[in-house]
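Worked Example 4.2. Read the sequence first, then its structure tokens.
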Amino acid sequence: MKGRKRTAVVDVLGLILKCHVGAANQADVKADPWVLFWVLERYERLAKILADQGYEGDLERDIEAVYGVMFEIVQHEGKGFSVQPQRWIVERTWAWLENGRALTRDYERLPANHAGMVYVGMIRLMLRRLENNRRRWKKETT
């Protein structure tokens, strides 16, 4: 595999619910719908899913019909760069995870191992949040 594409479903806080790592040459709508189905089966209180244009098509209608969840495709406005609503939540999550050394380069041989490192990075981030973002070192008493 020459490249990898990471797909993640995150909540409103930016915490990863499900991650999938696959080949970079696979289209989103072909390779990753099972990620959405996995999340919808386990998180029944989901009310709305925001996705980019790579998920347009039958998937949108299927999710709304079967699960009753609103599925919204975020459209680009005009030419060039435009800020998309709520897109920053996913991008912020990837930026947090890139701070971990294991995810800055692709050291893993198998995609499943790389997905595991994404989860390890998210666990590390959540533990730091529980600790109030402070490092506490044990002070030696002599």
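Now turn to a second chain, presented in exactly the same format:
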Amino acid sequence: MSDHSIAKDVRTMLRIAVPLALAELGWMAMSVVDNIMVGGLPDSALAIGSASVGSALFYGVAIFGLGLMSGLDTLVSQAFGAGDWKEGRRALAAGVALAMVVAPLLMGMVAAGAPLLGIIGVRPEVLVGALGFNRVLLWSLPPLLVYTTFRRYLQGIHYVKPVTFGLVTANLVNVFGNWLLIYGHWGAPAMGIRGSALSTVIARIYLAAVMLAGVWLRDPDALRGLRPDFQHMRTLLNLGLPAGITIGLEVGIFNLATAVAGRLDAVSLASHTIALNAAAVTYMVPLGIASAAAVSVGKAIGAGDPRGARRAGWTAIGLTVAFECCTAVAFFTLARQIASVYTHDERVISFVSVLFVIAAIFQLFDGLQTVATGALRGLGNTRTPMVWNLVGYWVIALPLGYWWCFRLGWGAVGLWDGLCLALILIGLGLTWVWARESARLTA
């Protein structure tokens, strides 16, 4: 492959990856802003910890629903690559129907999961705030599913500008809502961390409306008489269920780690929350590149271009390696500066700096597993990443992290060591799987 073709592949990937990475960063920015702004309340560590545990309960379930919709990447991009717009629209209709079916079920699961926080042993003062936060945040789940369904259709047809616009402006809505509702400005009630949750609900309703408008502007026929059929819903579910389980296993283990950290002291919980929040921000870029890899690989497969599909996957992986090396350096060198954005508590800042060393180590492997999963999704393989995530996180990381945390007395550092080990194994494993599968395309 010539230098010119490599440069062309990189430019092509960046055209879709940059807007999607910005969109993912915009999505994550809501959580970052929430944590920063509740950190301005009188008891900073307690407020951050309570909001974090409440969010963990919510996202532990909600992220599974978002993963269910990821099968649209495969169906829509392959249809788009083949020039079959009708097939892509049928996939969208199936996605909308599936979202409406699962939304109330997932809301019920979140509500039913609240007692688990007490069973795990979250401290009472954290538990009270977390449950209040979660009861409000729960109502953001339906618009969140609507948003992700229309977003995946838009990225599948390579029309991503509305996605970036929606996330940027939704963050402005969220910042203003936080300012208004957390502290009670302009005569609004001072709701504390519950005000932050309500602001997020409002921002996500707005975000879903923007995605709907984006589909209407680009492909109004997709919204005319949405008539899902069970065949397409079944196909979407066959693809999306393993993908939903995969991301649920990954995000679930981090959220469980947050809930377990709720058993530790306030400083450890706040430090864990800040370090995880920062690591999640950097994770959004490879997550955006992974979406670009999925739709680019899928489009090439639909167009009958297996070599193009292979190049797209490896280009995405190369971009991710370059980015994650930069973030690792940033975590090593800017730990205290990043932590001080969240809090002025010197005890928390010092502990965050320790956790950032571990985060720096697993950056590259986190990016590899994310983008390899996206590239495999473009091929229609969503089951293999599910198996690797199950074994890596739940069979290896969970028992080891728990043992190191409580039995050996390493605290939050033990939890993070377990997560780091899992990311190394999964990242290397899924990259090997992609190498094998992509080689078969051109054999």
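Notes for the reader: The CA atoms of residues 324 and 418 lie 20 Å apart. The chain has a mean pLDDT of 85.
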